[in-house]
Amino acid sequence: MGISLRAYARHRGVSDTAVRKAVLAGRITPEPDGTINAERADAEWTQNTEAPKVGTRQKAPQVQSDLVERGTSPSGGTSLLQARTVNEVVKAQANKVRLARLKGELVDRSQALAHVFKLARAERDAWLNWPGRVSSELAARLGVDPHELHVALETAVREQLQELGEVAPRVDG
User: Fold this and answer.
1) How many CB atoms lie within 10 A of CB 166?
2) Coil, helix or strand for 76?
3) What is the DSSP secondary structure assignment for residue 53, as one 8-state letter?
4) Would you write out the chain's pLDDT as a tens digit for each of its 173 residues?
5) Cα(157)–Cα(125) distance, rounded to whole angstroms?
6) DSSP reduced 3-state for 36
């Protein structure tokens, strides 16, 4: 009869989850009653655990088991340091956006689109009213029929507005 998984974890300086994973992975073999023979398990752990690659730092056993518990690998994959770095970058970006919003440097996208639409409609209406305002005066200056000039200006303005109406406003970049 050996010691419990938790006792062996304390003996190794790792978490009991790391010991359970080692048992499930076949790196250490428990006794038939589920306990651990510490001497035999130490030898199996050493023999069946891959050594760190050349050029990498030796991690403390607890840190290494914590990485295993988090689903990361000390020799590859996403490390805890990488995950924390990504988290800090995301936090910094969120704080930057929050600060810009507080300073009034950001606008709501739907409000910006509504404002652009309102301005475009006011501009269109002003142009549609323009031929009626200037056609009589221009006809008198040029010595042409006021009605013909009004129709010609109105047609030209509508064609121009039709072309401008095909351009969609973009506020996304």
Assistant:
1) 6
2) strand
3) P
4) 789 989 999 999 999 899 999 999 889 999 988 899 999 999 998 888 876 666 655 555 555 555 544 545 555 567 888 888 999 999 999 999 889 888 888 888 888 889 988 998 999 999 999 999 999 999 999 999 999 999 999 999 999 988 887 777 666 65
5) 11
6) strand
Query: What is the Cα–Cα distance from 18 to 3, expressed in whole angstroms?
Result: 16
Angle made by CA atoms 37, 43, 49, in degrees to the nearest 5: 115
Coil/strand/helix, residue 173: coil
> Residue 2 contacts by C-beta under 8 Å, 6 or more apart in sequence?
8, 30, 31, 35, 36, 37, 38, 41
C-beta separation of 72 from 83 below 8 A: yes
Euclidean distance between CA atoms 151 and 146, whole angstroms = 9
